[in-house]
Amino acid sequence: AWMADVEEGGSGGGMSALVSSREFPATAWTQFVESYKRTVKSYGREPVLAKVRFGQAISMGLILGLVYLQQPFDSSATKNRLGAMFLLIMKQSVASMFTVSQVIPKDMAVFMREYLTSANRPSSYFLGLSLAEVPYQVLFPTIFGTIAYWLIGFAPEASRFFVFIVTLVLMANASCSLGYALSTLTGHDGVAVALGPVLMLPMSLYAGVLHSSDNVPWYFVPLDKVSMIKYAFQAIVLNEFGSDKYTPKLRQFVFDYIGVETGQIGFCIAMLVVLLVGFRILAYIFLLIRAKRALM
């Protein structure tokens, strides 16, 4: 219906008049709803992809859980627990970012045609696309995290399990935002996928496990400050080892080793929210720049 309105409105003055005036026949809300519906339908036309993502969440949760099955709460399992937490974060971060890195470049030609004919706004398109992905970025991390959490034997407390899942979901969506930013920046799915590991490697190095978080080289400081991997990992460590299942001595040893302090979990979770929104806004700005350039 909205495309029909455009064709009808553009039949008199031609596409050049629509482009020059930048008057949109349909409201922003209508364009958002249609963009959202189209994205949902496109996912529905590829049920195999959703099944693969569902199967991956279950299988990876089982594999990681069985590798680190029921770890004890003493110092002998500290290394295993930290390793499991780090792998949890890395797996979900990589999966979330790569899943969306190819979406916008493949859809770019359609969006540009709609934008040049005043059929769709960048804001409506991007918001509809983003919101359509949210349920997947909540469901699959929750399934993966739930299986791994109880198999590994993390703190058996409802509140800590809830914080763990919330952290994993926020991190997944922050990684998704980074994927959108890379894809709108490059406009090419292959380039976006190739750039992902280049950024994620230094982001993961200084989380506190592979390299001391206190000795970050100045040239990696910007990436360290915007590392969703670091903030998610530290939040999970603080959440887990804050349990009474661990002795105060072991708890302090782990916090010192990772480079975190008690009570810092709120800051880590807040930073995940900031990165989620920040990278999403950056992605929209890149898309807007591409759209404006198409008019020149």
What does this structure look like?
With 296 residues, the chain is an all-alpha fold. Helices cover 78% and strands 0% of the residues. The chain is built from 13 helices and no strands. It has helices at 2-13, 15-21, 28-44, 47-67, 78-101, 103-116, 122-152, 158-186, 189-205, 221-225, 228-241, 248-258, 265-294. The longest helix has 31 residues, at 122-152. The chain is elongated.
Summarize the structure.
The protein has 296 residues and is mainly α. It is built from 13 helices and no strands.
Helix content: over 70%
Overall, the morphology is elongated
In terms of DSSP E residues, the strand content is under 5%
**Overall number of strands:** 0
Q: Which H/E pattern describes the elements?
A: HHHHHHHHHHHHH
What is the alpha-carbon Rg in Å? 22 Å
Q: Estimate the mean pLDDT confidence.
A: 88
Sum up the structure in keywords.
0% strand, mainly alpha, 78% helix, elongated
Q: Which helices and strands appear, and what pairs or packs with what?
A:
Layout: H1 2-13, H2 15-21, H3 28-44, H4 47-67, H5 78-101, H6 103-116, H7 122-152, H8 158-186, H9 189-205, H10 221-225, H11 228-241, H12 248-258, H13 265-294
Helix pairs in contact: 1-2, 3-7, 4-7, 5-7, 5-8, 5-9, 5-11, 7-8, 8-9, 8-11, 8-13, 11-12, 11-13
